[in-house]
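Troubleshooting: if your tokenizer reports a length mismatch, compare against these two reference records.
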Amino acid sequence: MVVDDEPIIVKRLETLLGHLGYVVTAFTDSEEALTVLAHERFDLIVTDLKMRKNDGLKILATALANDHEARVLVITGDGNWESISEAIAKGAKGCIIKPFRIEDLKNAINRVIPSAVQLERAVDAWFNHNMTRSCNEKDVVNI
């Protein structure tokens, strides 16, 4: 899940996470995100810390209330260490400072998500990519 009130950030995260093999549920409206989060679990939640309606701390609290092992990364553009520290103290697994590079996102994910989950995502992405194209004789392998 991606939550940010800046559409460009949501689109960028959606694209980057998609390239890493994730199916992304993205929101620019934190109210909508909270509604979905109350009923669904996610492997990873990336949320902006400062948003117009609800802040990332509300997203974090809701995620942890529904899944005490929720993996939440907060992103922020203001670099306010007090709010970052508060998010970490309340259960966020990490923080990414805007603007960020794909390597920053990958490193944060690698620290937060167990390698078994990442491997499962990679296999699923490979399978979906390779099995959606048409199969012909040279694609068939005898085992």
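Reference record two:
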Amino acid sequence: MSRTNVRLANVKSATCKAWLKSLNLHDCNSRKLTLRNNSACEAGEMARAGWLYLGDADRVQCISCSGVAREWREGNDPLLEHLAQFPWCSLAQRRNKDRETISEAGEDKTNFEKAAQVIAYPLTEPAIPAYTSIKERSKTFERRPR
């Protein structure tokens, strides 16, 4: 039985199709496994943009809108390509909104993954009130034994 309800586009290899269906493709790390060394773009960026690899050439499919893209070139931004080809995709729109929020907060776009985790798991009430600020929490790393 399939672990995901993603409707896959044409997958030429039956073995690849069975493997893809065994994965939880809504999980970014599972999508990243499918993209290893199969694209001109970094696998983590491709997976965060919603793409999974279909097993031939450089065809990828979005888990949300089911759009299929190909002909990736080094330097392509997976999220911007996703928005350009499938502007109605809600996943790509959310990821882009997250990226804009991070950019407005002054975060370095090369640190996108780390900043996205901060947004996804915000600190609400720390057990130690003094650790509400990132600056105070960072100081604890300076004091740790080496």
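Descriptive notes for reference record two:
- The CA atoms of residues 82 and 90 lie 11 Å apart.
- The longest strand covers residues 51-53.
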